[in-house]
């Protein structure tokens, strides 16, 4: 006990809790997880929409602790994300092994704007090491959520995906064709596989098909019910990968909203993949939301649950709903809360956990300039509200209880109105909450301003900086809690924090009418000329350091606050 106390004092900022595996296994928005086991290691790919590089792949040895391993799309020849709106881009990857090589099937959609009438395109890339990926092969089928499955009995490769029955009534279902992985062409019959378990209408969305074999059965695991609270996993089996399919007697096999349990914090459980450990234990990886007071600012995260098999059917989590307090498995403990993250931008390359929005046309930041620490921006006309690539880098918000802080580099002169450098809690180009420095509105000098976006309205407030240059210790902060975000500043990373504005976290989980939001919140550091090129007389701007501090997350099992 004495030893334990000493240890707690030494590590102060975090505790090693004896939790084994706790959910979410990958925190921060990481929807549509697809898992593959390689020996005694596991890899999960998740959707990243308009973020670049695209489609992160995480690795774990113990199922509890996951590290970012690679990104599937790192070259513009692989995915074109120019001008894509929030929610479009690339999504729903599926990892599989075909002819001894790893494949990742995915899809891209330039926009879902109904006027543009651009449809999703199915594609796949391949890799020997899950790190470096090929250019894509484009499938000639029309649909979303593609996955490749090779039948070891015949070596045939099937493309399974969600598609409309035709281009007139567009009733979506799970479709299949045998495919040539090298050309992308369907070489077998294009067939309707399964329409799921819910009433089948034009609004039904049987999606995310994953096919696997276990003993004598082929299984077809899908998601149904739409992306919101009714999202669930259902399964069918057959003696052939081509069907016919028999639905499980216990469908949906995963659905937290069932049985009146829409009061649980964990909701939207679905889009699952099943896998076995080398010891023969089965698990499901799936997406779910943590709903806090009805809202989910972190979006959809990756979850895990144990699976038992009975009479050739899977039972997820013993048939019980998923609760955050549950822990399971027999592995290394998860570190909770995680260690603080600090980036001094003192390495040649940006840490891979940083993203940009869409594919940059030109490099708009520079790190470790002239041997000094820090990141400097080459701000352009674009800002966080544009469907372009502003001079901004973003990290996913990883905890519901954390602080994101960024210390500015000092400047040699002042900023004029519109010349802006700051940080943001960013959900989309339609919804981001900024605190930044710029020339003041309606007066001379520089101001620290907050700019909050709530349903199309913008609330702008400013305080005078009282300095003709940005001082070397000015630090901007965003304190994120389950129900609120608070924006403030200090002089020095550890100086007294002055909090300027607070807003409900529901404004970081909000899609204006006619828009979708499939992502969760990220934190951005950014600079912009606000519609104008950065003027030659304006100073160089940037950040010397970014720090994330995580606190304990005591999120209740039931959404009661
Ligand atoms: C699925 O629904 C479509 C559209 O109604 C229908 O054409 C197709 O035969 C159905 N497929 C199966 C496997 O029942
Ligand atoms: C949640 O809903 C279930 C099913 O309706 C009910 O039995 C349970 O009492 C509720 N729990 C809480 C904490 O509200
Ligand atoms: C929960 O959300 C409702 C609005 O849906 C709001 O009125 C209430 O104040 C929130 N509760 C807390 C504890 O913030
Ligand atoms: C947990 O795993 C360790 C090492 O693999 C093993 O020695 C131990 O018996 C296991 N404990 C349980 C409860 O399964
Ligand atoms: C700037 O002045 C205009 C006109 O008086 C006023 O409407 C606006 O609220 C002012 N903005 C700020 C941030 O003070
Ligand atoms: C957002 O504004 C629209 C249009 O005015 C309105 O219909 C909707 O109810 C508002 N939503 C929220 C959450 O305030
Ligand atoms: C600048 O001075 C004004 C007036 O004294 C004060 O209200 C404001 O907080 C100061 N700004 C900062 C960033 O300290
Ligand atoms: C801020 O405080 C932390 C914890 O006390 C310390 O580790 C860190 O060095 C301090 N940073 C600065 C810039 O003083
Ligand atoms: C967030 O962290 C603070 C500071 O450690 C703590 O007081 C608070 O209870 C935490 N909130 C939740 C919901 O865990």
Automatic annotation (TrEMBL):
Residues 343-532 form the Beta-xylosidase C-terminal Concanavalin A-like domain. The active site is at 32 (proton acceptor), 207 (proton donor). Coiled coil: none annotated. GO terms for molecular function: hydrolase activity, hydrolyzing O-glycosyl compounds. It comes from the Eukaryota. GO terms for biological process: carbohydrate metabolic process. Keywords: Glycosidase, Hydrolase, Signal. SUPFAM superfamilies: Arabinanase/levansucrase/invertase, Concanavalin A-like lectins/glucanases. The record marks 145 as: Important for catalytic activity, responsible for pKa modulation of the active site Glu and correct orientation of both the proton donor and substrate. The keyword Hydrolase applies. InterPro entries: ConA-like_dom_sf, GH43_C2, Glyco_hydro_43, Glyco_hydro_beta-prop_sf, Glycosyl_Hydrlase_43. Pfam families: GH43_C2, Glyco_hydro_43. Residues 1-20 form the signal peptide. Belongs to the glycosyl hydrolase 43 family. This is Beta-xylosidase C-terminal Concanavalin A-like domain-containing protein. It comes from Penicillium arizonense. The lineage of its organism: Eukaryota, Fungi, Dikarya, Ascomycota, Pezizomycotina.
């Amino acid at each position: 006990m004495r030893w334990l106390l000493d240890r707690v004092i030494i590590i102060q900022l975090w505790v090693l809790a004896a939790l084994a595996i706790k959910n979410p296994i990958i925190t921060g928005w990481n929807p549509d997880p697809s898992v593959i086991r390689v020996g005694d290691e596991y890899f999960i790919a998740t959707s990243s929409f308009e973020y670049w590089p695209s489609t992160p792949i995480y690795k774990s040895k113990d199922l509890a602790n996951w590290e970012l391993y690679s990104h599937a799309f790192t070259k513009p020849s692989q995915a074109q994300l120019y001008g894509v709106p929030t929610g479009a881009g690339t999504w729903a990857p599926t990892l599989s092994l075909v002819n001894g090589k790893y494949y990742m099937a995915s899809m891209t959609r330039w926009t879902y704007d109904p006027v543009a009438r651009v449809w999703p395109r199915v594609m796949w890339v391949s890799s020997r090491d899950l790190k470096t990926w090929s250019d894509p092969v484009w499938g000639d089928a029309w649909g979303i959520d593609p996955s490749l499955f090779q039948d070891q009995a015949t070596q045939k490769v099937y493309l399974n995906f969600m598609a409309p029955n035709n281009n007139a009534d567009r009733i979506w279902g799970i479709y299949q064709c045998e495919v040539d992985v090298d050309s992308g062409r369907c070489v077998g019959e294009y067939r309707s596989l399964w329409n799921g378990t819910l009433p089948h209408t034009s609004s039904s969305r049987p999606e995310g098909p994953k096919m696997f074999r276990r003993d004598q059965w082929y299984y077809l695991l899908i998601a149904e019910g739409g992306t919101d609270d009714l999202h669930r996993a259902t399964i069918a089996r057959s003696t052939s990968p081509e069907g016919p399919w028999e639905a499980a007697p216990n469908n949906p096999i995963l659905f937290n909203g069932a049985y009146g349990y829409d009061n649980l914090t964990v909701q939207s459980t679905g889009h699952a993949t099943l896998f076995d450990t080398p010891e023969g234990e089965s698990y499901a990886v799936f997406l779910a939301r943590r709903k806090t007071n009805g809202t989910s600012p972190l979006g959809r995260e990756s979850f895990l649950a144990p699976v038992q098999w009975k009479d050739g059917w899977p039972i997820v989590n013993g048939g019980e709903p998923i609760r955050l307090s549950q822990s399971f498995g027999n592995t290394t403990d998860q570190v909770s809360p995680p260690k603080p993250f600090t980036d001094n931008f003192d390495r040649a390359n940006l840490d891979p956990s940083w993203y940009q929005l869409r594919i940059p046309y030109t490099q708009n930041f520079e790190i470790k300039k002239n041997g000094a620490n820090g990141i400097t921006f080459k701000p352009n006309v674009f800002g966080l509200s544009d469907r372009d690539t502003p001079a901004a880098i973003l990290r996913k918000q990883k905890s519901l209880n954390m602080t994101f802080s960024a210390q500015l580099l000092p400047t040699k002169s002042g900023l004029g109105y519109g010349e802006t450098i700051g940080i943001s809690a960013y959900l989309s180009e339609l919804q981001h909450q900024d605190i930044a420095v710029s020339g003041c509105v309606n007066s001379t000098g520089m101001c620290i301003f907050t700019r909050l976006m709530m349903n199309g309205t913008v609330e702008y407030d400013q305080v005078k900086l009282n300095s003709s240059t940005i001082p070397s210790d000015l630090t901007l902060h965003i304190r994120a809690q389950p129900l609120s975000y608070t924006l403030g500043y200090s002089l020095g990373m550890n100086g007294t924090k002055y909090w300027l504005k607070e807003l409900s976290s529901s404004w970081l989980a909000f899609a204006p009418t006619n828009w979708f939001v499939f992502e969760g919140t990220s934190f951005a550091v950014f600079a912009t000329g606000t519609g104008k090129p950065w003027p030659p007389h304006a100073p160089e701007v940037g950040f010397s350091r970014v720090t994330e501090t995580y606190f304990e997350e005591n999120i209740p099992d039931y959404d009661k606050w």
